[in-house]
Amino acid sequence: MKPMTEQHLAIYRRHMVEIVDMHFDLSREEIGKDHLDPELRRALMDVPRHLFVPQSLMLMAYQDTPLPIGFDKTISQPFIGALMIDLLGVERGTRVLEVGTGFGYQAAVMAEMGAEMFSVEVVEEFADGAKARFELLGYDIEVRVGDGTRGWPEHAPFDRILVTAAAEEPPPALIEQLEPGGRMVIPIGGREIQQLSVIDKTGSGEIRTREIMPVRFTELETSSSGPQKVSGTT
Questions:
Q1: Which residue has better confidence, 25 or 190?
Q2: What is the pLDDT of residues 199-212, one digit of tens each?
Q3: In the CATH scheme, what architecture does the domain 64-215 have?
Q4: Which of 75, 131, 134, 162 is buried deepest, with most CB atoms within 10 A?
Q5: Which pairs with CB-CB distance under 8 Å and at least 24 residues apart come from 109-114?
Q6: In angstroms, rounded to a whole number, what is the distance separating the alpha carbons of residues 215 and 206?
Q7: Average confidence (pLDDT) over 105-129
């Protein structure tokens, strides 16, 4: 069999985006719209998702399913990952804090859209790998190893915050670091089922929460809640 080429991978990406388009159409009542943001759609077509999964799973990278990445973590299925970014409302120049870098895919997509990206990851191996991928692909994304529930005070406030793991309630530090008029997207709930939620902070600091749909994410970890190596700010 001949080796996979970039043209083949581009076809896989296009099929992935078409599936995401279909999910948006089918979920229009829950989401409140029936199509992807055009800039997000372009970014999904351009970012090589196969470089953001374990090498043994490269051929599965464009299937609409979550994939294991180690440490009992997964990369979200393309539809859910795209939905979270779409709900966040990322624009060029938006300052975004991501909690839970993983292998770096969603941060890369938002950077491709022109966001100013800051990402915090509790697993040192993930953070190191993501930084290497960002450098390889030319994305200017700052990555910190540490407890994501504490945010990144040195760079706060943020226009948008994306949390890629579930919490019983939004971490207070993240609410504090959210700019008035800003937005957070986070799965809220217990171990089994959560609600993907949009949290808006009004100009006066009032918090308003809107539930979108049931989801299932791994739980948000702090630096003291697991066996991961944490080295502090990098």
A1: 25
A2: 999 999 999 999 99
A3: 3-Layer(aba) Sandwich (3.40)
A4: 162
A5: 109/40, 109/43, 109/44, 109/47, 109/81, 109/82, 109/85, 110/43, 110/85, 110/162, 111/139, 111/140, 111/141, 112/42, 112/43, 112/46, 112/47, 112/139, 113/39, 113/40, 113/43, 113/85, 114/39
A6: 26
A7: 97
CA atoms of 35 and 143, how far apart (whole Å):
31
- Exposure of 153 in the CB half-sphere (CA atoms within 13 A): 6
Question: What is d(CA 161, CA 179) in angstroms, rounded to the nearest whole number?
Answer: 10
Q: Are strands 194-201 and 178-189 parallel, antiparallel or unpaired?
A: antiparallel
State the CB neighbour count (10 A cutoff) for residue 178: 25
In this predicted structure, what is the pLDDT of residue 222? 67
Q: Residues in the chain, how many?
A: 234
DSSP secondary structure code for residue 116 in this structure = E
* Cis peptide, bond prior to residue 157, ω within 30 of zero: yes
Q: How far apart are CA 80 and CA 20, in angstroms?
A: 9
Give ∠ CA 85-89-91 in degrees, rounded to 5.
105
SS3 content of the chain, % helix, strand, coil (to 5): 40, 25, 35
Question: Distance of alpha carbon 171 from its chain centroid, rounded?
Answer: 17
- Mean pLDDT of the 154-169 span: 96
When mean pLDDT is compared across 69-73, 91-95, 172-176, the lowest value belongs to 69-73
* C-alpha–C-alpha distance, residues 51 and 47, integer Å: 9
Q: Which residues contact 132 (CB under 8 A, 6 or more apart)?
A: none
Please state, in angstroms and rounded to a whole number, the distance separating the CA atoms of residues 234 and 143. 7
> Per-residue pLDDT tens for 124-143?
999 999 999 999 999 999 99
